[in-house]
Amino acid sequence: MALIDRMAPLRFLRTAFEPADWVAVFLKNYRTGQTVQRVVPIESALLPPFQRWLRHQNANRWNVYVSVNAIRPGRSRSRNAVIGIRHIFLEEDVDGPGLLAALTTRPDLPPPSYVLHSSPARLHMFWRVAGFDVVNIEQIQKRLAIELRTDSAATSCAQMTRLPGFANHKREIPSAVTIEYLRPRTVFAPNDFPERMSSPSPATRPRKCVDCTSSIDRVSRARHFLRSVTIVHFAFAAVSCAGLICPTTKRSPLSWTGTRDACRRGPRVSCFPKFTTHGGMGAKRLVDY
After folding, report:
1. What are the residues whose beta carbons fall under 8 Å from the beta carbon of 248, sequence distance 6 or more?
2. Residue 94 DSSP label
3. How far, in Å, CA of 19 to CA of 166, rounded?
4. Same domain, yes or no, for 94 and 152?
């Protein structure tokens, strides 16, 4: 697959924004930490010299991003600089196919306008919208991030997305940034997104294990643990069970705790156990982290 598609960024910019909009174009080199930003009108971003400059930078391992919404002319891409809401945006950096499957079970949500694949299993979801302001767009994005288990840190109206048609150089092996257009001409209004979603429970889509990508639930965790343990694990477990109950947590030492289901910034999810010592007991305990 070719990593560079010269027409893809042009089509995205023409589809996602109004002709008079200004956008922030942000470049970052993850090897050196250097960054470059340009706040330009759409008509300038479409010009061949500007696109050639982006391709040159991308060929030198610079990552190319663009603002999700329209920006006030100037130098800033901060939240206060956003003057035109163009999208409802979600970012999924763990389980892209799982998010797409979850959306098929949500009749209260309109189908997305387009889906950007930033790298394998990671995607950005867009709904083209009009009539929203900064406050209600962020409220909707935060609510959807909780319900659909997407990145809760990517809910600001000043969020950036990768510009399709360029290569993702964040990791050692680059990947092509591609986009699927599903309903690009449909523009959704605030009444298309109800204030209360029909699925208030945040447990509608299981997270993925960061080590083995298996779904996180009690049954699969237990099965996966039994497949991965060694005789050393069973030896520590036998010692652990001698205490029966942890005096600190008041729970069984073999209970699974500490998932990231309630908060993405909590402990990392893993199917693999780690051993730790609870104070006062002197015995190794098997806990999740």
Report:
1. 278, 279, 280
2. S
3. 22
4. yes
Q: Which uninterrupted H or E stretch holds 24?
A: strand 22-28
Encode pLDDT of 62-96 as tens digits: 999 999 999 999 989 999 999 999 999 999 999 99
Across the range 19-40, mean pLDDT stands at 97
* Segments forming the whole domain that contains residue 264: 218-287
Cβ pair 184, 114 in contact under 8 A: yes
Smallest CA-to-CA distance from 113 within 105, 124, 102, 121 is with 124
Consecutive H or E run containing 57: helix 48-59
The closest alpha carbon to 8, from 68, 56, 67, 64, belongs to: 64
Contact 146, 152 (CB under 8 A): yes
Both tokens of 139, joined, read 């409220």
Tell me which DSSP letter residue 155 carries: -
As a whole number of angstroms, the distance between CA 167 and CA 46 comes to: 18
pTM equals 0.70
Residue 199 falls inside a structural domain: no
Determine contact, residues 116/179, Cβ cutoff 8 Å: yes
Q: The CATH number of the domain where 97 resides is what?
A: 3.30.70.1790
